[in-house]
Amino acid sequence: VQLVESGGGLVQAGGALRLSCTASASTFCIRVMGWYRQAPGKQRGLVAAITSGGGRTNYADSVKGRFTISRDNAKNTMYLQMNSLKSEDTAVYYCNAGAGVWGQGTQVTVSS
Question: Do 111 and 73 contact (CB within 8 A), yes or no?
């Protein structure tokens, strides 16, 4: 499986971005998927995860109420809608499809 993220960029604090992660394989629909992020000098950590059918989601406490993870299995694509962005959300965001399966990352920069 290959994963390609898009949608990152520079936004002012309080703004919004939507990240997308598109998978190359049809097995996308059976995988638990997740978004992770890594800020400079920090470890990569989970932002949000979603089950294969999209019925269950999980969020880091720091993004609850601001970020929404979703997926469209017909399009082999997962999304992360990020609202009310803060400077501390600045990081490289990675898509994950299980052990060792990562996208290349997309930079999100929030200016204060």
Answer: no
